[in-house]
Structures are given as structure tokens and as C-alpha cells.
Amino acid sequence: MKSVPQISLEEAVALVKDGDILLQGGFGMTGNPVHLMHALAETGTKNLTFIGNNVGEVGIGGGRLLRNGQIRKMIGSFFTSNPEAVKAAQDGEVEYELLPQGTLAEAIRAGGAGIGGFYTPTAAGTELAKGRETKLIQGREQVFVEGIRGNVAFIRAWRADTAGNLSYRMTEQNFNRAMATAADLVIAEVEEIVPVGEIAPEHVHTPGSYVDYLVQATLTLEDLGSSASVESSRKVSERRMNMAKRALKELKRGDVVNLGIGIPTLVADLITPEDGIVMHTENGMLGVGPSPKDGGGAMDYPVNAGKIPVTALPGSSYFDSADSFAMIRGRHVDIAVMGGLEVDEQANLANWAVPGQPLLGVGGAMDLASGAKTLIITMTHTNKDGSPKVVPTCALPLTALKAVDMIITDLAVFRFIEGQLTLTELMPGASLEEVRAKTSAKFKEALEA
After folding, report:
1. 67: left (phi over 0), alpha (psi -120 to 50) or beta
2. Which CATH superfamily, name and number, covers 9-227?
3. Residue 194: which of 165, 170, 217, 171 has the closest Cα?
4. In whole numbers, what is the pLDDT of the chain averaged over residues?
């Protein structure tokens, strides 16, 4: 059995050269090799191409490299969480490429498996498909994406043995597992290094054959940034709760359900373990339970896609981001409930970008919108200026084509029945006249008695 060298942070970051492609594991600051990133920020290494789900937080993790001007280009799915990354991109200081979260994970897995690329229905017909080859496969337009490999991968695991076998903690697999396969040089930052044999073979998530060096570094609450504690506040109103309650009625015992950010998050607060609904979160967990009540944070619990600590119900499982999105694209998620900015008469969805606003991230929205068996959109019926969100044709950048099955607003419930937008219910306090006045899309009326 080989022995993988254990080196210092300084020795590890010296292996990164100017101009390298650097893969960085983590989802937010969960499973993030933050000590390696901070050590690299102390060097003069520059012109890096950074590949990760996001560039850390402001001044933390990859955010420190960005602030130093060490990153030439960033490739990821959600940079909005770091305002400095958004500004650097919009000011032209850093090149960037946005990929849907599942596409990013699969591209890394493909690169690690020696596969040149793959076709995916995710992002077909959207701005992120522009310039890419497309092909009609099994009746669906699909987009070609090349596999991704790097010169160096920084990953974070919980335990390693001296042979380099790695075991991850709860939702810390995320991008780490795939990235461990997809670089010429893989450096694993770990909490603990144990003698070979102390990690049972069935508990090894990344075999030691992928790992070149180990660095031991202990996490603190400060290292986790905003992932450290339970969410302190949540925007709740009677109208928003009415939408959440109505969405809950669509969920049945045994359904595998993914809830997006915003109003859909409120649905999670209404679900009890007795409901038998299996909650899925795209960063790698099935069987999500409610937020912890003991005040514990991300050092003690898994986190969901909103980077909020959650509990694990009996029967829960953890996996990496590539497997998570394989579940979504493979239509193993029954229902996705997402927020929306616009839905049109053709069941097209726009919910990820507003021109002129500081947004730079699509996350998992495109994968979920095109991959879930049923897509429910919850949103206010109008914008703050009174303009409608249920429209003839989406004016905002599209998330998915012909994907929406149901719309729940604060005024009404619509379904697409035989391809036609149909009003089926009025929400509490709403009138038919108000819905007609505030909806610019044409719709059929089939109100339930």
C-alpha cells in the first residue's frame, strides 16, 4: 500500500504555478479547502483560472485570491454570493464563464473519467447555450459541454489515512469527490490523518489512487463564513405563507421534492417528518429534516442548498454534486418548487437573471427546471411597479423552455392543461377581476367550484 506524503500548507501552495487551472472543492464554505486557499493568497502566484461552484465569500477562500488579483478567469455556477466577484466580472477585471451547477459537476466528472464531453438538455434554448453545439436527441434539444480538467485540485475531506483514502463528512462531498479525479495534481486538506486501515473500505469515498498530497488543517467556525450558523431571519408574510401552504397541497407521501430559495423555502417549514415527503437538496442530500433546534451550526449538521444547517431524518443519505444532479436530470426528483421572475403562455420560465442588476449566477435552477418531473413556480403576481409576471412571452433571460406545470401566485393558481395556460383557483382575498387586470398572458378560465 502506497503512502501519500503529508506536507505543509506552504509546501502545497508552492506546487501551484502561474497560469494554472485550479479546481477548488466546496459548496459555499462547506467542504471548502479554505486553509489551502488562504495560503495560496499569501503567494505571488497569478493568472489563475479558478474553477468552482462559487468564489468563496468576500475575503474568504477564493474570495481572497480574487481580491488579490490572482485570478484571471473564473468558471462556476453561482458568483452572486460574492459581490466582489460580480463587480470584478462586470467591470471586465476578470473573465468568467457561467455553467449550470449540474453541468459544472458533470463536466468535472467527465474530465476525471477521460470523457471528452457530453450532451445535456440543461440550458437548451437559453443564453448559456449560445455558441455551443446542440443536437436533437430522443426528441429533446441538448447542449454539448466539454469535460473539465485542471492542473491542480484543492479539495477538503474530513478524514484521510496515510494511503490517501478520503472520507467526507455529511454534505461536504459536494464538488470534492469529482474534483479529486480531474486534476494532474490533487492536494487534499483534511481534518484528521489516521493510520492506514482505520477507515473501513466501505467508508472510503475517494480512493487514495487519486490523491497526491495530504495537508492537515483544523476547521473553525470562522472558516465556514455564513455557513456557520442557522439562518437568523426569514421574510414571512401572510401572502407568502398562503403560497407556501398551497404548494404543500401538491406534495404527496413518498414524493422526492426539491425546494428552491425564497417562497419555496417556506414550504419546508410546513413539512413534518410524518408527512413522508423526501426532501432533496442539490448539494448532496436526500432526506432533509428541519433546521436544528439546539443552536448548532454547520460544524454539527449538514447544510442545504441555501447553506443553512439542517437535520437528517432517518433513512437520509449523502452523495456528491454530480450524483445529485444525475438524480435531477434522470428524472428521479418528482417535484421541484422554485421561485420565478416571469412565466409565459408557452410554459417558459425566467428566474435567474435581470439585465442591469448585479446578478451573476444560475446555480441549479436550469437543471431542476428541465429535469424535475413536475415544476411548480411560486411568485408574486406582479413586480413592485405593478407590471405582470405571467406574460405572453418572457422578456427576461430564459431558465428553461416549456418546463412549467403549475404557477402559484399571491392571487391565483394556474396550470398548463394540454399546453394551455389555465386559471384553476383564486387565492384568498383575490378576485377574478383583479387577476384578469394583473395578468397580461392569455389564459383559459376553469375555476374549481
Report:
1. alpha
2. Glutaconate Coenzyme A-transferase (3.40.1080.10)
3. 165
4. 93
pLDDT tens readout for residues 316-337? 999 999 999 999 999 999 999 9
pLDDT at 234: 58
Residues 6+ apart with CB under 8 A from 130: none
238-445 fold: Glutaconate Coenzyme A-transferase (3.40.1080)
- Catalytic residue from among 57, 84, 106, 282: 282
Same fold across 9-227 and 238-445: yes
Alpha-carbon gap, residue 432 to 435, rounded angstroms: 5
Half-sphere exposure of 45 toward its Cβ, with a 13 Å CA cutoff? 24
Polymer length of the chain? 449
Residue 282 falls in the annotated catalytic set:
yes
Alpha-carbon gap, residue 336 to 28, rounded angstroms: 22
Q: Is the pLDDT of residue 28 over 60?
A: yes
Domain borders along the chain are 9-227, 238-445
